[in-house]
């Protein structure tokens, strides 16, 4: 088996895996959209809160469709030895890779800016909607109970809020170490429960190696796919000439 044939087969099987992965995501997305109840039972009670603001079904279908098309493009290009399809495949992977690198750089460089945007969204929601809007209340209650945190920054997010005024000056139970009502501002100050944003940052730091490993693995796969497709493209160019 020559080098060209080996690389061609590797390109074919690599894209076959992408195609099968896309089909799996596509099937999962259709399942969630058609019969979301049974899917949520598998994920547990916490997923029901997330489904209220993230449509997992359509997200999975969109990503799955892209992967299916990308896998078909790579497989067909390798099988038919089409320089045009290989070039399109290389270009798409390159665009995705550059976008991922750019997103990572922006996330690192403007992390404080992103925190400001999140704070500008979260604080008014806690002040005005917590306790009155069922969706916002369930999301924040679940987040605070699971992460053992209070508000976005700390208990001060609830001071002067609509919830405090309607509950005789009490704050959510999660803001006090006793985790029970009534939770007065003085007790919340002594408890000094961290805000949820800091808790999320600590969780990300604890799992930084896993996140970094996954990101590095995806990057290596993308670079490998680009290298293989470019090799086939250049080799076919030499064969034609």
From TrEMBL:
<keyword id="KW-0472">Membrane</keyword>
<dbReference type="InterPro" id="IPR018499">
    <property type="entry name" value="Tetraspanin/Peripherin"/>
</dbReference>
<dbReference type="InterPro" id="IPR018503">
    <property type="entry name" value="Tetraspanin_CS"/>
</dbReference>
<dbReference type="InterPro" id="IPR000301">
    <property type="entry name" value="Tetraspanin_animals"/>
</dbReference>
<protein>
    <recommendedName>
        <fullName>Tetraspanin</fullName>
    </recommendedName>
</protein>
<keyword id="KW-0325">Glycoprotein</keyword>
<comment type="subunit">
    <text>Interacts with SLC19A2. Interacts with NTRK1/TRKA.</text>
</comment>
<feature type="transmembrane region" description="Helical">
    <location>
        <begin position="85"/>
        <end position="110"/>
    </location>
</feature>
<keyword id="KW-1133">Transmembrane helix</keyword>
<dbReference type="Pfam" id="PF00335">
    <property type="entry name" value="Tetraspanin"/>
</dbReference>
<feature type="transmembrane region" description="Helical">
    <location>
        <begin position="210"/>
        <end position="233"/>
    </location>
</feature>
<dbReference type="GO" id="GO:0005886">
    <property type="term" value="C:plasma membrane"/>
</dbReference>
<keyword id="KW-0812">Transmembrane</keyword>
<comment type="similarity">
    <text>Belongs to the tetraspanin (TM4SF) family.</text>
</comment>
<comment type="function">
    <text>Structural component of specialized membrane microdomains known as tetraspanin-enriched microdomains (TERMs), which act as platforms for receptor clustering and signaling. Participates thereby in diverse biological functions such as cell signal transduction, adhesion, migration and protein trafficking. Regulates neuronal differentiation in response to NGF by facilitating NGF-mediated activation of NTRK1/TRKA receptor tyrosine kinase and subsequent downstream signaling pathways. Plays a role in the inhibition of TNFalpha-induced apoptosis.</text>
</comment>
<keyword id="KW-0458">Lysosome</keyword>
<feature type="transmembrane region" description="Helical">
    <location>
        <begin position="53"/>
        <end position="73"/>
    </location>
</feature>
<dbReference type="GO" id="GO:0005765">
    <property type="term" value="C:lysosomal membrane"/>
</dbReference>
<dbReference type="InterPro" id="IPR008952">
    <property type="entry name" value="Tetraspanin_EC2_sf"/>
</dbReference>
<feature type="transmembrane region" description="Helical">
    <location>
        <begin position="12"/>
        <end position="33"/>
    </location>
</feature>
